[in-house]
Amino acid sequence: MPLRRLAHLTLLVLALLTGLAGYYASQLRFNYNFNDFYPAGDPDLDYYQGYTQRFGNDNDYLLLGLEAPAGQTVFAPRFLAQVDSLTREARGLPHVLSVTSPTTLTNPVVEGFGFYNLPYLHPDVPASRAQDSTLIFRTPGLVGNVFSRDARAVALVFQLTPDLEKPPGDSLLASLRQGLARAGLPAERAHFAGRLVAQSVFVDRLQWELVVFMSLSVLLVTGLLWLTFRTWWGVLLPLVVVLGAILWGLGVMGACGISIDLMTALLPLMLFVVGMSDTIHIISRYVSELGYGAGKKDALRITIKESGFGSGLSALTTSIGFFTLMTSTIRPIHNFGLFTGIAVLLAFVLSFTLLPAMLVLLNKPALREPRKHGHDWDGVLGRLFSGVLRQRRLIYVVSALVLAASIGLSTRVRINSSLLDDLSKNDPVRQDFAFFDTHFAGVRPFELELKPVGNRTIYDPAVLREIEQIEGYLGHTYGLQFQASPATLVKATRKALHGGELAEYRLPADSTELKPLVAKLMLLRKKPEFRALALPDGSAGRLTGRMADVGSVRADELNRNLRHYLRTQLDTTVLRTRLTGSSNLIDKNNENLTLNMIQGMAIDIAMVTLIVLLLFRSVRMTLVVLVPNLLPILVVAGVMGLAGVNMKVSTSIIFTIAFGIAVDDTIHFISKLRLTLGHEPNIFKAVRRTYLLAGKAVIVTSLILVGGFCTLLFSSFDGTFYVGLLIGLTLLFGVVAELTLLPLLILGVYKKRGSKLAAAPDAVPERV
């Protein structure tokens, strides 16, 4: 079949496949569920899901903090009137199940046959302000939950529809902001916190930033392609191939029924940057052949034959780097690794089908007048190669010093994360969350399930005493500043039955006193506020609360001490407990980060090692390849330790991705060396020729990769910022090692006479 007809047929088939991919890509929807970031398949997750069915989610709340006007306390009548107006409006909003507000709080009192709810606040009676404030600050559960410690702010606690998704959540937030304006409460004195806020902010910003990053990457890559090839098709064709690969990758996701989430949303940007490598290597080799005077068909034939092997191996190693992320127990990271790895392989397929077909159909493919003495890069790369040989001792010494320093600094890297540590400390949203840590109980949920042993119920006297003991530890030692449990229900009921006297807020002295209290509680057992703390049959209970966001390292320490306390001080023949909750699952993710990263890196290194062994059948060459690619990884780990960057979910993907990408240039280099050895047995000459042939593509692809990842430096998310910075640094250090350390190691290992490398059969002669 004539070559042009084959090219037309190829384009037709690819166009049909692209149309199909476009259809499935159009079916993609965004997944806003933060619960997907919990460790999939973990027994603690299964337990938590059962726990939420019994007691509800621990993060289905929204906090709204309102500061009193400057110079006033929260007991100012006008401020309380504004808060009350907002409270009444909020109660009628969709998805709001209940509102806890200072203006609607009541002190229940039972007298004779009457039941009364006495308000804590009497804003219309100025003379009662001192008495009201005294009662509030003496009543457990009010200060830190609804009233700030300094009486300068109040908090409204909204209980929301379970697992409220982003669109209705955004509508609710907008309605509340409008309600603030109608109530005359300035927006600058209002502070929102909760899962709903984080969900809205993260998704909106990420969507916007991805548009910005893609635009910047397109501009950057277009500029670098133009500077490199100086022709319209040298710019347009790589863009067409990579954009087609992105569409195919998204189409595969759509066909598999996978939604776009906070991780897979990075696939287009990641593939745009990474997928450009093969096209640049192909066009660079094609342009070189045209520069040497070869015709279009011969130049394309030589290019495909020589670049196909190396590009295939590099696509394989890059995809393996992403596939190793599938070891993560976090579903979004697992999906990101799987489908980005598939998309990288699809980019390779398009690079060797779509790109050659378009090159065949070009009418004027010649880039420049034919040259018989090489091309522009030969002189630059030749001088660079000579300089590397002259400074070999200095390069070895510097590399050893950098390696030693990096290993030392990398020991300072810690696994630690907080609820919003991907936002900078000066971010308004993070400051709003910090407002509740400073003035109220905090925003980090705490959950402990309580299970009576034997025939006891949660209202058994011995069980209640154990719960009270746990509450004491949590309040004084653990740092839980707000908590509620079945014991607080019993105490509150006892207080109500004794005229609302604070001195009566305690557990009954004996079973005789407890029995009528429990009888009254059982009448209210189906009310939501009671069901949230104890099951109707009393078979289990819940100790819930909030605390400051202390970070995962401190939380792990607190939880270890708590578990030790529960094992040693709790009477397990009376009550058994289990720590659970969304915060516990997030902490569990951090525990798995190191294991997942080590597993991913081990798989990546093992696969690259296997590839090089099969390619060269030489253990020495395998070590030569690994050293200049592991060195940048260690350097970046040292940079993290020096800069105090913590390992967390967002930064845990850096090392496996960076190694998989960085090893690409090495694969291209050694594959070209293998071809060169087919007609040049002298190792020195073969390395020099390979250096000149591969050097241009290595430099250009590295610049594009580094530049593409550096666009992430403009992100408002610290996690995204560090992904861009650290992967960019890895690739930058990698290309330096590639052009300095790699050729020296090859020549050093094989300098002895008789040392040979496996050569590729039927290698095409190189022209340098």
TrEMBL record:
It is found in: Cell membrane. The chain crosses the membrane at residues 210-229, 236-260, 266-287, 308-330, 336-362, 394-415, 597-616, 623-643, 649-670, 691-715, 721-747. PANTHER family: MEMBRANE PROTEIN MJ1562-RELATED, MEMBRANE PROTEIN YDFJ. This is MMPL family transporter. Residues 239-361 form the SSD domain. It is a multi-pass membrane protein. It comes from Hymenobacter setariae. Keywords: Cell membrane, Membrane, Transmembrane, Transmembrane helix. One of its GO terms (cellular component) is plasma membrane.
